[in-house]
Write a structure and sequence with these properties.
319 residues, mainly beta, Jelly Rolls, seven-stranded antiparallel sheet, 2 helices, 5% helix
Length: 319
């Protein structure tokens, strides 16, 4: 279920190119963020972090629910990114400006590529929806930042299975299981489920940096105990990662080559500099049909862009 950044006063998130890294184990707390437009819904935002704007190309990660709430998100724009929707419960109707009109269901990957510009909406389906899931954004590298917008839905994702462990590969490749989802930079996203007493070691690419977010239960990751909430950043240089679970657990494993580009992330836009963001905002507010198109079924209703801050937006270096 595709969540978006609906804050009325979005903070500037300037993200710089990655510095040299190494294998680490840093526990980074989530921020509790209220989302406008979804009554009573609060999310745990674990990316971006002040000290860690990206993990590979992954530049945004929210965990929402579980809670009973209705989603009613009117058309709104994106540029320069891919949105990855991973629902754990609840169905959402997704409509976008490239003509998609689909139900987003648990266990299915819904991937929207914004590129030069796209708009979409999300509405709950059913009488008593329970919203629970993850929303991720992957920044597009400079060579692909203005690709044509697109939408993909993948209902049969590859799995890596061993005793007590199932890893569903959303994007990229893990232990020989490779997703067909379109990627524009080397990256990984896998949903790993562990049964009681499970202990497994997954192979990793040492040139990737990795991070883990626990969704349910508790798990020990290479000696670090994790429960739902914080992000465990693991750096680069690892060839494998060991997970053990004393209770049923579920987690998201993320990875990717350290992202080489400077980024400025504001509202629902990912750009290279202030001018990218300002131009996208002006095009959305000006209802430019060539850039953001039209989402059918909502008439003229849409979410207006917030005001830009009174300073020029600049990238921020990761610590």
């Amino acid at each position: 279920m595709t969540m978006s950044n609906l804050e009325n006063r979005p903070a500037l998130t300037p993200c710089s190119s990655a510095a040299e890294a190494e294998a680490v184990a840093e526990v980074l707390p989530a921020r509790r963020v209220p989302l406008g437009g979804v009554r009573g819904l609060q999310v745990d935002r674990v990316l971006p972090q002040r000290a860690l704007p990206t993990v590979g190309a992954w530049c945004f990660l929210d965990r929402f629910g579980p809670e009973s709430a209705r989603m009613r998100v009117l058309p709104h724009p994106h540029i320069g990114l891919q949105t990855v929707t991973w629902p754990l419960s609840g169905d959402i109707r997704h409509r976008d400006s490239v003509g998609s009109d689909v139900l987003v269901r648990p266990g299915q990957l819904n991937l929207m590529t914004a590129g030069r510009g796209v708009s979409h909406s999300e509405f709950s389906v059913g009488e008593t929806p329970v919203l629970h899931g993850l929303q991720l954004w992957a920044a597009l590298p400079a060579a692909h930042a203005r690709v044509e917008p697109a939408f993909e839905q993948h209902t049969d994702l590859p799995r890596y299975v061993e005793a007590g462990t199932v890893a569903v590969v959303l994007m990229g490749e893990l232990a020989g299981a490779a997703s067909r989802a379109t990627t524009h930079s080397p990256l990984l996203a896998a949903d790993v489920t562990l049964s009681v007493g499970a202990a497994t070691t997954l192979p990793l690419r040492p040139d990737f940096e990795h991070a883990v977010l626990v969704v349910d239960g508790a798990v020990t990751v290479d000696g670090t105990e994790l429960s739902p909430g914080p992000l465990l950043y693991l750096g680069t240089g690892r060839t494998e990662l060991t997970f053990t679970a004393s209770e049923p657990a579920r987690l998201m494993l993320l990875g990717g080559e350290p992202f080489p580009d400077d980024l400025v992330m504001w509202w629902n836009f990912v750009g290279r500099d202030h001018d990218d963001i300002a131009a996208a905002r002006a095009d959305w507010e000006g209802r430019d049909p060539a850039r953001f198109g039209h989402v059918s079924g909502h008439g003229d209703e849409r979410i207006p862009a917030p005001e830009l801050p009174g300073v020029r937006l600049t990238p921020r270096r990761r610590r």
